[in-house]
Design brief:
By secondary structure, the chain is mainly alpha-helical. The chain has helices spanning 8-19, 24-31, 35-43, 53-70, 86-102, 107-118, 126-133, 137-149, 172-198, 203-236; strands at 123-125, 154-157, 164-167. A hairpin with a 6-residue loop joins strand 2 (154-157) and strand 3 (164-167). The chain is flat and about 60 Å long.
Length: 240
């Protein structure tokens, strides 16, 4: 999937697609972009009925200028004595954030997750995140709530203090897969119910039946991968 920001030409294609009555997924397919990218672009620039390519491009440039003016440079990231190149760490962190955003994660949530991910402790307090990201406590709170709901971090009490800290570990993607698996299982059940109600012999019912079969295979594959990963980790870290 190509990365980078949307271009003026991309926005003209989006406007043309909306005029044709195309959905976000089809517009994204034509541009080689995630549907979520198209949805965010349209939503923050007037919505499907009022989207204009030139206006959207200018608004994006204005927001970028405002962010550059409002946000001071991020503080240096300590190498924690491991001999890391701070600039290389910053560059990697920004590229990782961009990747998470391309995968559909909102930018603030991506910044919080990346900040935790690159820290050796894998745990930071709200105050730590506010200082490192130079954003408001409310922004951190909203991002943490979203990431916690997705199973991508957890809260724990700081020993001997009333503060909480937010923690990620080696099982971050395992928990995310668990959340996806629960949603997938719900879709399997709904698809089977749809096939039953509509009738498996009808076109609509057959569509639901085929969807249920595919989604069931995905769920089974998820479970097999997670179990294989657990076994590999247990072999690598016996007694852990």
């Amino acid at each position: 999937m190509p990365g980078g920001r949307l271009t003026d030409e991309d926005r003209r294609h989006i406007a043309a697609g909306l005029a044709e009555g195309l959905g976000y997924a089809e517009i994204g397919r034509r541009l080689g972009r995630p549907a979520s990218t198209i949805m965010r672009e349209v939503t923050r620039n007037g919505g499907p009925g009022d989207y204009g390519a030139d206006r959207a491009h200018e608004a994006t440039r204005h927001r970028a200028r405002r962010r550059r003016q409002a946000q001071p440079p991020a503080p240096p990231i300590s190498d924690s004595g491991h001999g890391r190149d701070p600039q290389a760490v910053r560059d990697f962190t920004e590229s990782f954030i961009a990747l998470l955003v391309e995968q559909g994660l909102p930018r603030m949530e991506a910044r919080v997750l990346a900040c935790l991910y690159v820290s050796d402790a894998g745990a930071l307090t709200a105050a730590d995140l506010v200082q490192r990201l130079r954003v408001s406590p409310a922004s951190i709170s909203h991002a943490v709530a979203f990431l916690e709901q997705q199973g991508m971090l957890r809260r724990e009490r700081v020993p001997g203090a009333r503060r909480e800290r937010y923690v990620i570990d080696d099982e971050i993607w395992l928990r995310s897969m668990h959340a996806s698996l629960r949603m997938n299982d719900a879709l399997v059940a709904a698809s089977r119910r749809g096939a039953e109600i509509l009738g498996a012999a009808t076109p609509a019912g057959a569509r639901f039946e085929a969807s249920a079969e595919l989604l069931l295979l995905v769920s089974e594959a998820f479970r097999q991968v997670m179990e294989q990963w657990r076994q590999t980790r247990a072999a690598q870290h016996p007694g852990a």
